Each structure stands twice: as structure tokens, then as C-alpha cells.
């Protein structure tokens, strides 16, 4: 299902207008957390929170496939792995709406086409800036590159820390969740998979 956010209407100050029901929802949450939304320091907070959430979730208004619409004929017969390593990203988990903070490694083995390298990070952010689980984020990024570039292989590895595990719940800081999706040669061929994992600085 395609999701798209309600229209963004800018107020006279150039900032996003916040509907009353959205601001009221934040006031309800502040009361639920134990504070008084009518005290001085919290008066503007509902609007700030509402705008912040539109920013955290700006991926709903960003079509990831669009970033791969400009592809180039392979440059100079280059037929080796292309890897964008250690891409920092932020997301929010769909269970607690708490931050997921981590880094991604995205690689592909071109067939006929390459893409501007920044586009791999743009695809990642378009999916990350939504409510996510890490497994789906990993799969969506890999599938999008697979479908957009039709390469010989795609490898995506994501390492991230989940605030729902560090700041609440089990409260266990310092743990990273690691997920991967290997497609094409990286799934079928051991040597190719080893090579891409080594380039990522990971051992099989
Ligand atoms: N697999 C997966 N689990 C996640 C992700 N983000 C959060 N979770 C987990 O989702 C689970 C939700 O479990 P529930 O038992 O429904 O919720 P909860 O009572 O808040 O669980 P605790 O976090 O253990 O306190 C938790 O185990 C979270 O750690 C993710 O990206 N992938
Ligand atoms: Zn969570």
C-alpha cells in the first residue's frame, strides 16, 4: 500500500501548520507522561513535536525508486563491486516509535548500468525516514536497487542500535542488531559474498 502524508500547508511564518487535533494528541501524551501541557515551557512543544515527526517520517513523501531513475551506461567497462560503506542513518521503530540509529553498507555488482553514488544513500533515507523494522528496511533497500539497476548482485548490511532496547524495556545499551540481504551473485556465489563482506569490513 502506498502511503502518503496529509498535505503540508505552510503558515505565514514559513513553518508547517499543525492541525488542532495533532497538537491536542501531543498535549494528551504530555499529560499521560505526567506533566502539565499548559505550563510555560511546554506551550509550544505540541507544534514542535508535530513538525519534528513530519521530518522524522519525511520518507513517506519520498519515492525511493525515483532516485534510481537516472542511470548511466557502465563507465569504462567497470565490472567490479561498487560499495557505499558506513552510511549513517536514523529511523524509528514501528513498535515504539523510538529511534533506530545505525549505519548501512550498500553494494552492487553492475551489469550494464551504474548510478550516481549518492543515490544509494538517498534510497536508504527514503525508506529509513518511515516507521520501520530493521529487517524490512534492509529488504526494501536491497529490492529497490535490484529492481532499479537490474545488477548482477546486491548486498545490503545494516548495523543499528534501537532506543526501544537501550532507553526503555530491557535497557541494554551497547548492542547492535545486524541484518543483511544478499541477492544475485552475492547470494549464489560464496566467493562473491566473501569479497563483498570483506570490502564492507565484515567477515563471513
Ligand atoms: N525484529 C525486530 N524487532 C524489533 C525491531 N525494533 C523493535 N523490535 C522489538 O519489537 C518487540 C516488541 O515486543 P512487544 O513484547 O510487543 O513489546 P514490549 O512489551 O514493549 O517489549 P520489550 O521491548 O521487550 O519491553 C521488542 O522485542 C523490540 O525489541 C526491529 O527492527 N526488528
Ligand atoms: Zn521499538
TrEMBL record:
One example GO MF annotation: GTP cyclohydrolase I activity
GO terms, biological process: one-carbon metabolic process; tetrahydrobiopterin biosynthetic process; tetrahydrofolate biosynthetic process
Pathways per UniProt: Cofactor biosynthesis; 7,8-dihydroneopterin triphosphate biosynthesis; 7,8-dihydroneopterin triphosphate from GTP: step 1/1
EC number in record: 3.5.4.16
GTP cyclohydrolase I domain mapped to chain residues: 23-200
The keyword Nucleotide-binding belongs to this UniProt entry's keyword annotation: yes
Keywords: GTP-binding, Hydrolase, Metal-binding, Nucleotide-binding, One-carbon metabolism, Zinc
PROSITE patterns, per database record: GTP_CYCLOHYDROL_1_1 (PS00859), GTP_CYCLOHYDROL_1_2 (PS00860)
Catalytic reactions of this protein: GTP + H2O = 7,8-dihydroneopterin 3'-triphosphate + formate + H(+)
Enzyme class: hydrolase
Positions contributing to Zn(2+) binding: 93, 96, 164
GO cellular component: cytoplasm
Protein family membership: Belongs to the GTP cyclohydrolase I family.
PANTHER family from the UniProt entry: GTP CYCLOHYDROLASE 1 (PTHR11109:SF7), GTP CYCLOHYDROLASE I (PTHR11109)
HAMAP family: FolE
Subunit text: Toroid-shaped homodecamer, composed of two pentamers of five dimers.
Protein's UniProt name: GTP cyclohydrolase 1
Species: Sphingomonas lycopersici
Lineage: Bacteria, Pseudomonadati, Pseudomonadota, Alphaproteobacteria, Sphingomonadales
Gene name, Swiss-Prot/TrEMBL: folE
Amino acid at each position: 500500500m502506498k502511503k502518503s502524508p496529509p498535505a503540508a500547508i505552510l503558515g505565514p511564518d514559513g513553518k508547517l501548520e499543525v492541525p488542532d487535533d495533532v497538537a491536542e494528541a501531543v498535549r494528551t501524551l504530555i499529560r499521560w507522561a505526567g506533566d502539565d501541557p499548559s505550563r510555560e515551557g511546554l506551550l509550544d512543544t505540541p507544534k514542535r513535536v508535530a513538525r519534528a515527526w513530519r521530518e522524522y517520517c519525511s520518507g513517506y513523501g519520498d519515492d525511493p525508486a525515483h532516485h534510481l531513475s537516472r542511470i548511466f551506461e557502465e563507465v569504462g567497462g567497470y565490472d567490479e563491486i561498487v560499495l557505499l560503506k558506513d552510511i549513517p542513518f536514523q529511523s524509528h521503530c514501528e513498535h515504539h516509535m523510538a529511534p533506530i540509529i545505525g549505519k548501512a553498507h550498500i553494494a552492487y555488482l553492475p551489469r550494464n548500468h551504474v548510478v550516481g553514488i549518492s543515490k544509494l544513500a538517498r534510497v536508504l533515507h527514503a525508506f529509513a525516514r518511515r516507521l520501520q523494522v530493521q529487517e524490512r528496511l534492509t529488504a526494501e533497500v536491497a529490492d529497490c536497487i535490484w529492481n532499479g539497476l537490474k545488477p548482477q548482485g546486491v548486498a545490503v548490511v545494516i548495523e543499528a542500535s534501537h532506543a526501544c532496547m537501550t532507553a526503555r524495556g530491557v535497557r541494554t545499551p551497547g548492542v547492535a542488531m545486524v541484518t543483511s540481504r544478499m541477492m544475485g551473485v552475492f547470494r549464489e556465489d560464496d566467493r562473491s559474498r566473501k569479497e563483498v563482506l570483506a570490502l564492507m569490513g565484515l567477515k563471513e
